[in-house]
Amino acid sequence: KRLTILQKRFYGGGTLLAGAADSAFLVAKSCQSPDHFEDGTINYHGIAALKFGFRFIQGLGGMQAVESYAHGKRQYLLQGMLSLRHTLTNRNLCTIYSFSDHVRDASSSRQGPVIAFNLHYGDGVVVPFGVVSDAADAQNIQIRTGCFCNLGGCQELLQISAEDMEIYYFRGRQCSEDRDRAADVLYDRPTGACRVSVGYGTTIEDCDIFLQFLRDHFLNHSSPAADETDDDVGNAYHHRLLNANSKEGNNVRSVVSDQDLFWTQKVQYFVPDRLLSSILPSSSISCTESMPTQLTAIFVYPVKSCAGVRVDNWPLLPPQGQGLLYDRTFAIIDENGRVLSQKMFPMLALIRPYFHFDHRGESEAAVGSVKEYVQRSSVTLRLTSPYNDTDLELPLDFGFECFPSTVTPPTEISDHAAQTLRVCGRKVATRRISSDADQWITSFFRNSHTSSSNGGKPLSNEQRFHIVRTTADEPSSSKSSAKKKTSASSSQGSTSISSSSFANTAQFLLLSTESVRSLIHLIEEEDTAAMAEADEAAAVRCHKVKVENFRPNLVVSSSVAHEEDLWQRVDFSIYRAHGDETLLGSTVSMEVTGPCARCTMVDVNSDTGKSECRVFEALDAYRKQRGHGVCFGQFVAVPDHSSEADGNEWSLSLLKVGTTVSKHVK
C-alpha cells in the first residue's frame, strides 16, 4: 500500500521494462515492486572496499598501467574474434560494435576494455544473445547481454529507432531476466548484444579459452530450422519498417497530426459533453501504464457502405454491448435484393448521414442528467448528398429500450416489402422504408451516373433502388428480439453480431492512429520516388489516405504501427448511466477476433467518391498475412457471456473519445 502512494517522476537503471533514449516512450516496472524505485545497482560492500581498492591499484602502478594492460588484452581478443569466419560461407562469426571509426586500431583513450558483439550462424542469421549467454554460463564464462542499461548506445549501435523500441516491447522484449527469449531477435534483427570485459586480472589464456568457446559452439554452425507460423503476422511489414528506420536520413519524415488523419472534422454528440465532462473516474489508471492508450475517434455507419458519422460519445447496443447503437441499421439494395457497397459503387461515400435530436421543444440546457436527456429526446437520421436536391429523413426510434418508441414504422409500404437478405452468409430480416426513400436513393444513382465527373454508365429509367432497415428492433417484434444475435466464428471465443446490424464480419472494427500514420509515411517514400520519375498521379496518393479509407468503428491512439496486431483483448473505459446516476470507471472488454482482410474499397476517396487512392496496392506490398489476405486493422467483439444490465432499471453504456483503453498482448 505504501509503494502505491509514492508517485515517482524519474527513472534510472534497473527500474524500466522498456524505454527509448530519443522519445518519451518508457514502461516502468510495477509500482508494487521495490524494483520500481531502485535506480541502479546498490553495492554497499563496494563502497566499504573503496579505500582498499585504491590502495591495490596504486600498487599495480596506477590507472595508466591498468589501462595499458587491459587494452592490450582487449586488442588480442578482438583480433581473434574478427578472424573467425564460417568455412562454407566465408561470413564473419562476430559483428563488433564500436563508436570508433577504426574498430581494430581504437586507442585506449577512445575505447574501454570491453567488446560489444553479436554472433551470426553460417547462413547469416543472428544468434540470439540469450543463447550465447546460456552457452557461456555452461562453460563458466561470464558475459553480459542485452542493452547494458545504456539505451542510447544500444539504439545508436544497433540502429534501433524509438519506434523500433516500442515494437520490440510489444513483441515481448523487456529489460528483465524473465523476458520472452524469442524477442532477443525480432524481424531478423538483434534487439540487444553480448559484451565481454577484460581487466588487469585477465590473461592470454583466458582470452584463448573464450575464443575456443566461440569455435566449439558457434563457428560453422547453421541456424536452427524454424517453420513459419501464424504468430508471425505482419513480419514482412515490420522487417521492411525496421530496416527503413536504419537508413540514413530516415528521421526526416513529414509530421501527420491526429487532425490530419481524418477527412471528417465535424463531430456529433449523443449526449451533451457537459453532462459527462464533470464526471471523474471512479478508479485510477495503473501506474505501470506510462503512456496510456486512449480512444481517439468513434465512427457510426448508420447506412451500410455510406459515409460514417464521427461522434464524441455514443451508446453501446443494449443489452450486452454487441455493437454501436444504430451502426449499419440501414442498407441500400437493388431490385434483385443485392446489398450494395462502395466496392461496386464508390460514389456511396458521398451519401453523408447525420443524426438530428429533437428535445420536444425543451431547452437542452435545462436537462440535468443523462437519463433525463435521453428520455426527453427523439432521434432521426438525415441523409444528404451532392446529387439530391433535398435531404432524406429516416426514423430511428424502433423499440430501443434507451429511447421511447414515439415513431412508428411507415404504413405506406405493404407487408410483402419485408424480405430476408444475406450479408456475408448470414440472414438479416429487413423491411423497405418508404416510397420517398426509394425515390431519393434512385435519384442519387441516376444523377451520379449521368454526371460527367463520375464517369459512370447511365441507368435505365426502369432501374430502381431501395433503402431497407433491419426489423429486429421494431415494436412489432417481440421485446426479446433486441437480444437476438447471429453467431460469428471466432478463434477467441463465442461472439455475435447483432441481428439489428448489416455488419459483415464483426461487431466492431478497431484501428490505431499510428498504423494509418505509418502507412502514409511509407506511401510518401514511394511517392517521392514517383515524383522524381514525373509520375504525378502516384505522387499525390499519400494526401488522399485518411482513417476513413478503412471505415473503423473505434480508433485508438498508439505510438507503434500495427500494435493492434498483437492484442488479444481490449478493455474500454465507459460511462455507465444506471438509474439516475452516471459513473466513469466501468469497463467493457472486447476480444480481438482476427485481422480485417481488405479489398479495393480502401481506394475510395471519401471526399470525391472515386476509387483513386491506390491504397490497396500499397497494402498488398507489405500487409499480406498467410490465411487472411491483405489485412489492416483488427475486428473486436464483446463476448456473448458478458453480463447483462439489470432489466428492471434504466441503464445506458457510453463510449467516449479521450477515455482510457487497456490492451492485453497475446
Folded structure, characterized:
With 666 residues, this protein is of the alpha+beta class. The radius of gyration is 31 Å and the shape is elongated. Mean pLDDT is 77; it is low at 225-238, 240-253, 283-290, 398-411, 452-456 and 474-494.
- CA radius of gyration is 31 Å
Shape: elongated
| First-last Cα distance | 30 Å
Low-confidence stretches: 225-238, 240-253, 283-290, 398-411, 452-456, 474-494
Mean pLDDT rating: 77
Q: Which percent band covers the strand fraction?
A: 15-25%
Helicity range of the residues? Answer: 10-25%
Biggest sheet architecture? 11 strands, mixed
Tally of alpha and pi helices = 15
Question: What's the topology here?
Answer:
Elements: H1 2-5, E1 16-19, E2 26-28, H2 44-48, H3 50-59, H4 63-82, E3 94-97, E4 114-119, H5 129-138, E5 144-146, H6 151-158, H7 162-170, E6 185-186, E7 189-190, E8 193-197, H8 204-217, H9 235-245, E9 268-269, H10 274-277, E10 293-300, E11 309-315, E12 330-334, E13 352-358, H11 370-375, E14 378-384, E15 392-395, E16 419-423, E17 426-432, H12 435-449, E18 465-470, E19 485-488, E20 495-498, E21 508-512, H13 513-532, H14 536-539, E22 554-556, E23 567-578, E24 581-597, E25 604-605, E26 610-611, H15 615-620, E27 624-625, E28 629-637, E29 651-656, E30 660-665
Helix pairs in contact: 4-8
